[in-house]
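## Example record

The block below lists the input lines for one assembly entry, exactly as stored, with component labels intact.
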Amino acid sequence: MTQERTRSTSTTGAGLFTTGRLLLILSVCSRGGVLLLLCAFALWTEYLNLKVGYNSARLVELSSGKPMRIFYEYSDAFFTMLGDPVQVMQSNGGMTWSIRVMGIQFTDPVAGLSVLVKNRHMPSGFALGLIVPLSLALIFGRVFCNFICPASLFFFSISRLRRLLRHVFYFPEYAVNRGLAWGVLVGGLVAAMIFGHGIWSLILPYFAVGQTIFHGLAFGTLYATVGSIAVFGLVDLCCGNHFTCRFICPTGRLLGFLGRKPLVSVRRNAAACLTRCTSCADICPLDVNPKLDQYRDCSLCGECLTICPGNCLSIGLKKGGQRVDV
Amino acid sequence: MKRRNFVMAFVVGVMLPMIIPLLDKLPARSRFRRFLRPPGARAEKDFLDACIGCGQCANVCPNKCITMAGFESGVENLATPKIVARAKGCILCMACTQVCPTGALEKREPTEAGIRAVRMGTAFVAEDICYSFAGRTCGVCYRACPLPGKALRLGLFEQPHVDPDHCVGCGLCEQACVHMPQAIRVISTNELAMGSYTGTN
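Predicted structure tokens for the full assembly:
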């Protein structure tokens, strides 16, 4: 009886924009935004050069009606809106793992660990940059992976490709122990101590994406990190859905550990949950099982919310051990 | 059994990052190390300890002379900022020193006092190939120098004479040199400290 009722609500009551679909759209938009931001950082110095060149009257004369002039005028209007263009450019920059947006420093926890281990000294600004990423992980869990990491957009598209071609090709699905990612973290720290922090640019997928974008756009050259991205993509195709995010990426493992008891997470309505259905655990890209109320590693991607036939999953707030609806 | 799986996976994971140094197949001699660090860089070892390769200095450089090193400079210099003076010298705007989050580059001001405190390297003149020393008046390096008359002094036929006490090693003279290969070279402070460069001024 209960099952009959929930089935009917899932087909008639759910609109076009359910929470799950909204989360999916939001995650793609925000990761795309981060990607665009990285591209903008690499191209802004070009704009500055244009500005210097444009200030000569002869160039103004020559460029009338040219697309370059239109580009210049729009970007100039945009930057003037934000403030002094030179200052705006100096307050933004960096790769994903340590980035400065509007003068505020955001530090990757792995970068912080690496500096702490190798340098044994952290400037206060760099240490303060840890606050936002760590509190995000403590409150929401692994949301960095789903809303900020630009490499995860690449892995997301690979997982969609796997789903699209699942009747044409055979895609294997392997699982290894979580110890692998912890090992990569410790091994990376040891390698960083011996060889240098640059090692991380090939280990961390998002850092590799940042380096590749920067080199491609700012210098027009291919960087060694392209190879690392290709290897991660191949691993995702041949070893499992989101294999890199689940089993290799040390940042994901660290953030998953920090956010193992998130304040905000997926909440299950046990009364409406279908007894023998495991679709949420099957579709989860990060091996979370909402069926058993385990939310370690949950990145709030919303895949389980869209697939749940009983419509019993929602995003909820945990308060004093008891979960309440938002 | 579960703990054993964890330990085995952990050991495999620790080995994975160690593959990267193995990719660095270049022999030590053929590595490209003749580059400068951005202005305000600490001593080479301290610099490498602090620099995380976040790329903010390269992002902010208006002259685009700061590039990020790849495998060509060895695995220890991977993703660290470098300046190849012959390609593009540093204009000493000090924007990179203002943004460095880890203190690998010490903060400097773009004033004359700030510029004088910079020690990226020292210029060396190869007198056997320099045009001015062959009697053909050139003086291009002198005109490129940010501290003309102090770091670089002119002699007969505009022959350049470097003063190592004042030369900041920005590399603008090397960029400007019209001789091919360059008759004036900036050798980084690190290379001079290692004593591998045998030129004289």
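Residues 1-39+83-326 of chain A form one domain. Chain A touches chain B through 64 residues (CB under 8 Å).
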